[in-house]
Amino acid sequence: MRPILLIAVLLSSLAATTRAIDTTASRATFSVQHIYVEHVTGTVPVASGVVTLPEGSVVPIAIVATLDPARLRTGDDDRDGVLQTPDWFDTKRFPAWSFASTRIVPDGSGRFGVDGILTIHGVGVPEHLDVTVAGDAAHPRYRAVARVDRHAFGMTVTRLDPVIGSTVDVTLDIALK
Q1: Rounded to an integer, what distance in angstroms lies between the CA atom of residue 148 and that of residue 169?
Q2: All residues at 6 or more sequence positions from 152 whose CB lies less than 8 Å from its CB, including other chains
Q3: pLDDT tens digits along 50-85
Q4: Residue ranges per domain, the chain?
Q5: Three-state DSSP state, 155
Q6: pTM confidence score
Q7: How far from 48 is each of 24, 65, 170, CA to CA, in Å?
Q8: 15-175 — its CATH code?
Q9: Is 87 exposed, middle or buried (0-12, 13-18, 19+ CB in 10 A)?
Q10: Which of 17, 64, 72, 139 is deepest in the core (most CB within 10 A)?
């Protein structure tokens, strides 16, 4: 293959588009063990984000997203208010949670893994997401799951800490515009 043709082929394979996350059709849900009510579940709205996709592929090469913890909902207004305080998410000081991918590894079966930095409560921690894909390259939808240790983000100072599990199960359902 001639060098110019080889360069053209390589450049065409690098073509990618960046698409916005559809915040009206995307959400994060969570579940954490609680000694008094078994599990507390809730949702956190996806405030913004972008996914960069190679042409014709549903497996991204980069992901950046922001969630809005001030709009977190558990179904209990009193609990939601407590979660906004400095003992928990301190949403006045830290009004956003963010995730930025650092590595994406496809497995060839409509799944891929994403390593990245999740920042909550002002603390960035490496996290891994296992992702499944639905839809096609024009309309991909993603479901990502992770297990997050809330103590890694500094949430250990409350008197209720002993009755609440440290591991939080997180599921993200993401659609693109």
Answers
A1: 6
A2: 123, 125
A3: 999 998 889 999 999 999 999 999 999 998 998 888
A4: 15-175
A5: coil
A6: 0.83
A7: 10, 6, 18
A8: 2.40.128.110
A9: middle
A10: 72
